[in-house]
Design goal:
With 282 residues, the chain is α/β, with parallel strands linked by helices. It has two domains: 7-120, 2-Layer Sandwich (Beta-Lactamase); 130-275, Rossmann fold, CATH 3.40.50.300. It is built from seven helices and 16 strands. The two termini are 38 Å apart. The relative contact order is 0.12.
């Protein structure tokens, strides 16, 4: 992991416990920050530090080199991803990109001059979804959505739910629609995986080609709920996540059987689990 990072950062990160590292933020000519144990700190040569003046500073050239290495030295091969301001490294880290979007005839055609990176570090956390699974999926597979603002562990829990589903229901075919390469970063068991396609295409092509019983996907966007509804109408179970930080009663898409909400006290910890009638089961 981290092969795409500059040498100074790779050396400093040897002083960190990688299991406690959730995010790495690089900005050109600015101090490097990390989310470590759920707290934002600076990264110094000897590890994390609260002191800004002791932080490593990366150059614009180093950031450009990171992007080049994360693309496996072929930026062209990642151009479609980069137009959506992200990359996924070959070892599963999702890298958000900040730079200049280039438009032509009203369409985004490229991202240039990348000057900041948000590197999310995936972790398998066995046991983090046990409670959720027991209330949502243990007696039968159900349509379920995980809801929270960004950064509260939805993808980690979703990945673990997928593993538990495979163990509990070996007779079911599971399809992971993984648009950004993050959801299937670790062992997915017997599940089929469609990588780097749009969800609407994955739902359409995957349904016809792979005949799933359950589709698992991450970060639904507003325009994708129609594809979810079509899959449900065809008899499939959909388990997904979405960014939503308001009260569940204002969530517009009342098509699921379970709504799992997270709070900010502990990453991946459900604050409420609602049934289809929005009765809290916790």
């Amino acid at each position: 992991m981290y092969d795409f990072l500059p040498p100074s950062l790779k050396t400093a990160m040897q002083n960190l416990n990688s299991n406690l590292l959730y995010e790495l933020r690089l900005r050109a000519e600015r101090p490097v920050k990390v989310n470590y144990r759920g707290e934002y700190l600076f990264l110094g040569e000897d590890g994390v530090t609260p002191r800004r003046e002791r932080a490593i500073v990366v150059s614009a050239r180093e950031i450009a080199d990171c992007v080049f290495a994360a693309c496996d030295y072929s930026v062209y091969s990642c151009s479609e991803e980069m137009k959506e301001c992200f990359l996924t490294s070959k070892t599963g880290e999702r890298i958000g990109l900040g730079g200049t979007l280039v438009r032509e005839n009203g369409k985004i055609i490229a991202l240039r001059d990348v000057r900041s990176l948000c590197i999310r570090i995936p972790h398998p956390v066995q046991g983090c979804a046990d409670k959720i699974f027991s209330l949502c999926e243990a007696d039968r597979p159900r349509n379920c959505i995980l809801l929270s603002a960004p950064g509260y562990g939805k993808t980690t829990v979703l990945r673990e739910l997928c593993r538990l589903l495979g163990e509990k229901y070996p007779e079911k075919n599971i399809l992971i629609a993984d648009e950004r390469g993050e959801l299937s970063a670790f062992d997915t068991g017997d599940a089929d995986v469609l990588l780097f396609g749009g969800k609407r295409e994955a739902f359409s092509f995957g349904l016809r080609a792979l005949r799933p019983d359950i589709i698992v996907t991450d970060e639904l966007q507003e325009e994708e709920y129609a594809a979810v509804q079509s899959a449900m109408d065809a008899g499939l179970i959909v388990i997904a996540s979405a960014h939503f930080g308001k009260e569940v009663h204002s969530f517009a898409h009342r098509i699921f059987e379970r709504y799992v909400c997270f709070n900010n006290e502990k990453i991946g910890q459900a604050s409420a689990i609602y049934d289809e009638n929005l009765k809290n089961l916790l």
